[in-house]
Specification:
Mean pLDDT: 85
Order of helices and strands: HHEHHEHEEHEEEHEEEHEEHHEHE
Radius of gyration: 22 Å
Helix content: 25-40%
Strand content: 15-25%
Oligomer: single chain
Largest sheet: 8 strands, mixed
Shape: globular
Length: 319
């Protein structure tokens, strides 16, 4: 056999291994982020389409378990709007929203509690625990994790009564710290007792922000149904935007976001208010991600490009 006919061992190895090379490159790219986030706390608000699609449900659970194995202290705070609406429809009860918040009558509150605590929370815990005994279900009532105060919604600049809807005014995070110290994943449903003893429906976005501040979290991540905050808002209305067709703001400072809030759609206001409250409360970074994209959580945390919109504190101007 001539020299020219002798197979190249290096070429053969390259040919055999080339399919896996992108995986190795992805792991190498993730290395500094794995080091940065190991041992840190991240609060993830889970809701929207990511919660209703079986494929996205599985992808979310895989992301959470990956983070747990990577040493990240993960807390999941979930909503359940579609499930609540579906159950109200079955009971013949109307769903009404004002200023981005569900109008919650005492009758509706009973359904909200049953669906969030009894159905959705158990479902999320089961999704994660399909990969191991990690998730533990909680509600804002447990160990007085959340205490709420009745709030109004703002519609055209005026306060409007929305019933048993509360704002978190106190967080007792000891139970969450204890679970995180045991390498568990707390999964929190956002119903809470009020200072007046009544039961309140608490928006999951704002509850996640309050919990992130109380825990001293490294990040708040809000999964939603849009790619992020659009650069030409309000020209790009959420209902009219197809994924990948509008420019998304990749990073915005707190003061700039605060100035933009009055122009946002009612559905985006609680999410961006949550990010704003988190960074102003001491959380270094808050993110709005597209929950319609499988593994968007890992893409944001462990790639150089990231996805969605990141809210950061205002720059300190030297004196």
């Amino acid at each position: 056999m001539t020299a020219a006919a002798v197979p190249s061992s290096s070429g053969s190895a390259s040919a055999r291994g080339h399919v896996a090379l992108p995986k190795a490159a992805a792991l190498v790219e993730a290395l500094p982020w794995l080091k940065s986030f190991s041992g840190r706390t991240i609060v993830v608000k889970y809701g929207g389409n990511a919660m209703t699609s079986p494929e996205l449900q599985r992808a979310f659970a895989e992301d959470v378990v990956f983070l747990r194995y990577a040493g990240v202290r993960v807390v999941v705070v979930h909503g359940g709007g579609p499930q609540i609406t579906a159950h109200l429809d079955r009971l013949g009860l109307d769903s009404e929203f004002r200023g981005g918040y569900r109008v919650t009558t005492p009758e509706t509150m009973e359904v909200v509690r049953m669906v969030l605590v009894g159905q959705v929370n158990s479902d999320v815990v089961s999704l994660i625990n399909a990969h191991g005994p990690f998730a533990v279900g909680l509600s804002g009532e447990d160990a007085s994790l959340f205490t709420a105060e009745r709030r109004d919604a703002l519609v055209d600049g005026a306060p409007v009564d929305i019933g048993n809807v509360g704002e978190v005014v106190d967080v007792q995070p000891q139970i969450v710290h204890a679970l995180l110290d045991e390498a568990k994943v707390p999964v929190v449903a956002t119903v809470a007792r009020g200072v007046d003893g009544q039961l309140y429906n608490v928006n999951a976005d704002t509850a996640a922000a309050a919990l992130a501040v109380a825990l001293g979290a490294e990040k708040l991540v809000v999964l939603t149904d849009v790619e992020g905050l659009y650069a030409d808002w309000p020209a790009s209305h959420v209902a009219d935007v197809q994924p990948g067709t509008a420019e998304v703001i990749s990073e915005i400072a707190a003061d700039e976001l605060a100035a933009l809030l009055p122009e946002l759609s009612s559905g985006m206001v609680p999410k961006m208010e949550a990010c704003l409250a988190a960074v102003r409360g001491g959380v270094p970074r808050a993110h709005v991600l597209d929950g319609r994209v499988a593994h968007s959580l890992l893409l944001e945390l462990f790639t150089d490009e990231g996805v969605g919109t990141m809210v950061v504190p205002d720059a300190v101007v030297p004196s």
